[in-house]
Amino acid sequence: MYYDIVVIGGGVAGGEASTRLARSLNKKVALVSSTPVVYSRMTLSYGLKRSIKSITPFTLYEPDDLRREGVSYIYDKAVSVDVNNNTVYLESGLRLEYGDLVLASGSKPNIPDIEGIDLGNIYTFQTFDDMIKLDKIAEPGKKALVVGSGMIGLLASDALSYRGVKVYAIDLLPYPGLTVFEEPLAKEMLNRMSSRGVIFMGGVSVERLEGDSSVRRVILTDGTKLDVDFVVFSIGVSANLPRGLEKISRGQGGSVLTDEYFRASVKNIYAIGDCATTLDYQTKKHMYRPLGILASYAAKRLPEAFRGAKYDGFLIYQVEEAFNSVFIRLGINSFEAKRLGINYSYAYIRYKAPGVGFKKDLVIFEKGTDIIIGWQSVGAHLVSYKSRIFEELIRSGARLEELEEKKIKVLEIS
Q: What angle do CA 378, 344, 367 make, to 5 degrees?
């Protein structure tokens, strides 16, 4: 069976890309997905908190919705790609020939190779099925260990502790969320976790897991022993790709390296979403940033790329809610700045927010030039309306001194 464009992956990137390509290019498009509907994973923590058991609230497209958009929805799993003959092989035995292939197959959780990893009651938190499994075991009074305290780990700890589970959270880094926000905000998040009863331990990882058929005890690398009912691993992700793509150039996490047209290194193949790199707007470097918002951005720009239009990179914008706090991140953070070789520092700032009063946040800036490269905010109130101001400042290459013109006061430079 031949299609002008075959899209692999039924998440945000695949769903949006397939409908937009079919609409704007008047091409014969097929979407291959291993899930019965196209759904968003960005609000699964909300679903776990409230024990939502239906996929409907998360659904973006039903198969009939896609057909009305001119997309053939194929509920199957893409197991391999023959790049020499432009053919996708599906688990059912079906073969799809393509003119162009779009990889939007997402990511898969990293699982450590440690003793006891095959025991029962060990979970990840990435898909709707993961949420349902955790929903069944997340009973008040049970004990859980969340391994990894990046954003997904924080969301898992938040949802489980909200449900009355006694949560231990660990990370190799000294504070929670340091891959996302700066140390002062990480310490603030730690206080909010502690007030919920979550016990955080930094600078440690799991040495081994013990139990008969299911995990019952976790031994940490510092010798700490924790009796638990279940474990949730959230230690990052890697690109989830079908077999046969060995010729494609790869980046961090096995991600597909793409150019300014979302093209891979093999002809007629594009890649977007959590399986691919994207171009950073500020540095013009390719980075692996597996975030739903960037997957959506890429899907919206893909039809223009098919027509030959370059994109100039994405300015990262992330909004999350955990432990009764709203976190906003715009631009580069210190974790990324280190990887990019940027000599950075941060400054405390203060501004007045209507209905909130004075708000204290952070901006990240490049040392030597004082150019603002990022903004971060954590608090009980959403101040996302300010993001437009900071976006303008970052895109224009504004310096710290220019904040005063926006009625934003620099309090202290770290």
A: 125
Per-residue pLDDT tens digits for 348-368:
999 887 777 788 899 999 999
In 3-state terms, what secondary structure has residue 226?
strand
Which residue is associated with the tokens 């706090």?
325
- Expressed in angstroms, the distance from the first to the final Cα of the chain is 60
Determine the residue type at 386: K
3-class secondary structure per residue, 344-413: EEEEEEEEEECCCEEEEEEEEEECCCCEEEEEEEEECCCCHHHHHHHHHHHHCCCEHHHHHHHCCEEEEE
Output the six-digit token pair for 309.
């239009």
Q: Give residue 26's region: left, alpha or beta (phi > 0; psi -120 to 50).
A: left
φ/ψ (deg, to 5) at 408: -115, 120
| Sign of the torsion angle spanned by Cα atoms 345, 348, 352, 353 | positive
> Across-strand partners of 376?
329, 362
- The DSSP symbol for 267 reads T
pTM confidence score:
0.94
